[in-house]
Design brief:
alpha/beta, 14 helices, 5-stranded parallel sheet, 9-stranded mixed sheet
Amino acid sequence: MSHQTVIVLDFGGQYNQLIARRVRECSVYCEVKPYNAPLAQLKAMEPIGIIFTGGPNSVYLEDAPHVDPEIFTWGVPILGICYGCQLMAQTLGGTVTQAQEDAAREYGKTVTYYDTSYKLFRGLPAQSISWMSHSDYMAAVPQGFALTAHSDACPNVAIADEARGFYGVQFHPEVNHTEYGLDMLRNFLYGVCGAVGDWTMGDYKNTAIQAVREKVGDGRVLLALSGGVDSSVVAALLAEAVGKQLTCVFVDHGFMRLHEGDEVEAAFAPWDIHFVRVDAEARFLARLAGVTDPERKRKIIGEEFIRVFEEEAKKIGAVDFLAQGTIYPDIIESGLGDAAVIKSHHNVGGLPDYVDFQEIIEPLRLLFKDEVRQLGRELGLPEYLVSRQPFPGPGLAIRILGELTKERADLLRQADFIFRDEVAKAGEDRHMDQYFAVLTNLHSVGVMGDSRTYECTLALRAVVTSDFMTADWARIPYDLLDKISTRIVNEVAGINRIVYDITSKPPATVEWE
């Protein structure tokens, strides 16, 4: 089934993938493409609309990313956000300059005034808060454009040429800080682009199952099953698509949470699939001995994962395809186009150069986490599995800062279990989307009994998020933090100090490594 498509053209800004997530939230399918993607490729997608993202550059610099002006002749509506707005203005005959000290430069929450007669702002309040992040200024707007919003410091916060369906905003409607930002995007999609809202997980399920069947044919598939949400949803989808042709391999690399390996095995016991559990703790620990750099950890773990799967495939017999639970944020954070690599994931940037399979199947690679959960529900997975909080492929290995040893892994396993146990008992798990412990490589002085200690510092991390592209730290009650801290220090030998991470994403990430 084909869907209406919006292209999000990526110019390297920090919120670019969040724009795509917001478009999907409006039941409109979109794909993120680098700004320098061939025009023929973009045009072949037959987009109903195009969104230019923000970016860190200044459009008037010679080496700044630009777009072929031909794109403005397609008759397709375009929305420019921040850098994208300035790029549109500069390309179509306007002038963009660096803002002066006392005018037009804006950062953070800003009171903004809108002309609600224009489609982008129709039905919204004439005054609200927008999130600004720009130091450049549109000194002159192109012919045919009108000024449609302003702030106290900037007279041209938004522009529009409604005859051609071109709109530009200097703020970021995709972030939660912009009041009514999602409504503005919805106005663009439905009021300007003519979207009908044909992107649903029910349709995606049927399309993905058919695509897998056509690709696999009578071949055999090996799935890297971690037991987390993503790989579990892939398992359900593949089971429906190819049935007995699927083998699920669960690699217990020694960095699972307490009792988790047994729980994963038990969860899939009732399924009519070939399930193989591989105890690989010793080989992973041996490969990671002495490694402290987080990217090296991820690369080593990624390669070792593949090597284990190749070995299991040989035991099983001829296997043609490797399936993985890669999702869109994995691809985004591993680098997309000119975007910076935040962290390489074992099933994206962590893959070795050579993989001994005919092809890799990643049916979730264009889905965000909440879409994956909804797809799981469409496939009939139980809610406890669908709603499970994310757990990284490398497991506790990237929650242990510094050297990896079995002793340090066991230490973190116990502390992490106490944290999660107390949060669940208090019912606070309903108010958090991810929470875990991190074993730092810091030691500090303490006193236990009448003796001096010099032991590990443990960090607790809990966040609230709707999409895992941005996140805020969870406000855990002090009494609960006190209970967690007391239990860990008393029950886990080797830890004498507990700290709580109160950093949002951005500037931090959810994980520490």
